Amino acid sequence: MQGLLEGRVAIITGGNSGIGRATALRFAEEGARVVIAARREAQGQDVLGEIKRAGGEAIFVRTDVSRPTEVEAMVARTVEAYGRLDCAFNNAGVALGHGLIHETTVEDWDRTVDVNLKGVWLCMKYEIAQMVTQSGGAIVNNSSTAGLVGYEDGAIYTASKYGVTGLTTSVALQYATKGIRVNAVCPGWIRLPVTREGDAEPEERESQAVRETPMRRMASVEEVAEAVVWLCSDKASFVTGVAMPVDGGLVAR
Length: 253
Ligand SMILES: NC(=O)c1ccc[n+]([C@@H]2O[C@H](COP(=O)([O-])OP(=O)(O)OC[C@H]3O[C@@H](n4cnc5c(N)ncnc54)[C@H](OP(=O)(O)O)[C@@H]3O)[C@@H](O)[C@H]2O)c1
Known about the structure:
- The protein is of the alpha/beta class.
- It has a single domain, classed as NAD(P)-binding Rossmann-like Domain (Rossmann fold, 3-Layer(aba) Sandwich), CATH 3.40.50.720.
- The chain contains 7 helices and 7 strands, in the order βαβαβαβαβαβααβ.
- It has helices at 18-29, 41-53, 68-82, 106-134, 155-174, 202-212, 221-232; strands spanning 9-13, 33-38, 57-62, 87-90, 137-142, 180-187, 243-246.
- The chain has a 7-stranded parallel beta sheet with strand order 3-2-1-4-5-6-7, with helices on both faces.
- Helix 1 (18-29) crosses helix 7 (221-232) and helix 3 (68-82) runs parallel beside helix 4 (106-134).
- The structure holds NADP nicotinamide-adenine-dinucleotide phosphate (NAP).
- NADP nicotinamide-adenine-dinucleotide phosphate binds at residues 13-14, 16-20, 38-40, 43, 63-66, 91-95, 115, 142, 144, 187, 189-190, 192-195.
């Protein structure tokens, strides 16, 4: 049976860990050739190994998404290896700057905005430059429920994710007639190391997540990956400019 992404070429930033890793594996299962872009090569090679053992195709391109020349090179290397670029999951992100705003640091602001917001902008800039030459493509940015509602404990992170949501909807409008769809996923509480940073103990964070989530549990990374696969596939051919919560009902509350 044909996969949903058969023959497509897809970049996944942050594809060596967490949500990105799960999405890279699902994209390969659905027939995509996958470019994993992140900084830590060893973790990237692990994912490549897993994809190749299952019969899929993938490469790792060492990339810091906050650096314009590296993002440009990521897209160039993709086209050099596979001849085109059909999909991208701009997922790389950091969760820094917890706590009250008067206690946060300039370093936390700069790093968060550089990776989460400037990184997504840079990725779209160079990915779409390639996609317009092919008259088509599908992009999914990883925002967060923190890109849709406020979070007391993460004002800087929330600001960066609102930025991702705003970029997504605006860029979707720019390319709506050009065959390029641009959407975002907005995960809620996901069981992962990134959700376990910060002041509270992991158990406390888990019970907070369960308390706040109408479905009374955290999500798995695979549940986010499924939404990304669908948004990148032709099944979502009339869907653009959407910031889709994958959150067990959190934002609905
Ligand atoms: N976990 C949650 O509960 C949750 C909820 C909502 C949204 N999200 C979002 O989901 C995305 C993925 O996070 P995750 O939860 O899967 O955590 P994770 O496992 O820590 O993944 C973060 C990924 O981003 C990459 N990354 C960080 N800085 C980078 C940079 N400068 N250049 C390139 N890659 C970089 C990391 O790889 P390297 O360190 O190797 O570069 C890693 O692959 C993030 O955007 C996060 O904000 C997560």
